[in-house]
Specification:
Blueprint: H1 4-22, E1 30-38, E2 41-44, H2 46-54, E3 61-73, E4 77-88, E5 95-105, E6 111-122, E7 134-135, H3 142-151, H4 160-179, H5 186-192
Parallel strand pairs: 1-6
Antiparallel strand pairs: 1-2, 3-4, 4-5, 5-6, 6-7
Length: 206
């Protein structure tokens, strides 16, 4: 069995270094049958994947890997799960993320990314025990989550930069949901289906 743990480490070091340096050059790591899910947005193919990554709403980025776990899969592939933090632009406080890769052999002695799933995880300051962290896993929960943020007595724990970034992701997610023809939960249909999501400093404590 190949040294899957060593390969996983080499791959993530290379991937994040290239992403942080110039993410437009990541296309050789993907193939036409590769798929990326970034938050709620799914794209397939090397070209569309890199287009999605280069369109993200930040300039400079630095990945800080906290944990890396890998397992071999049938056919010579490798599953990799990474958790870590992102430093975006000039922001000094990192944002947490998790990312999962499935690598497959390319037939030439190397590997390519077949599956790539990325999620940001936001945690409010002074989060109470048992209270769920803010994530982007369920787009239908966003309006409620933002209502909680804007009305929370602890809302100063949510940075304006994070709030603006989440707002951008909300707009993308709602657009993708409507474009896909997905059905909203009945309660949210009544409350939010006709609302246009907006972002402002009001309610964020800034």
């Amino acid at each position: 069995m190949a040294d899957f743990a060593g390969i996983a480490k080499q791959f993530t070091d290379f991937y994040y270094n290239q992403f942080d340096t110039d993410r437009s050059q990541l296309a050789p790591l993907y193939r036409d049958n590769s798929m990326l899910t970034f938050e709620s947005a799914a794209v397939a193919g090397a070209g569309p994947i890199v287009e999605k990554l280069t369109s993200l709403p930040f300039g400079k980025v630095k990945h800080q890997v906290s944990t890396l776990d890998a397992q071999p899969v049938e056919g010579g592939g490798i599953i990799i799960l990474v958790t870590g933090a992102l430093l975006v632009d000039e922001e000094q406080r990192p944002m947490n993320y998790s990312q999962c890769f499935q690598l497959l052999p390319d037939g030439a002695g190397s590997y390519f990314i077949f599956n790539d799933i990325f999620k940001l995880v936001f945690e409010r300051a002074h989060q109470r025990p048992g209270e769920p962290m803010l994530t982007h896993c369920d787009s239908h929960r966003y309006p409620i989550a933002f209502k909680e943020i804007s009305n929370d007595d602890d809302r100063r724990g949510v940075r304006h930069e994070e709030f603006q970034y989440i707002c951008a992701m909300v707009r993308d997610s709602l657009h993708d949901t409507l474009q896909a023809g997905l059905v909203w939960p009945e309660k949210l249909n009544k409350q939010h289906a006709s609302e246009e999501p907006t972002c402002s400093k009001q309610g964020t404590g800034y």
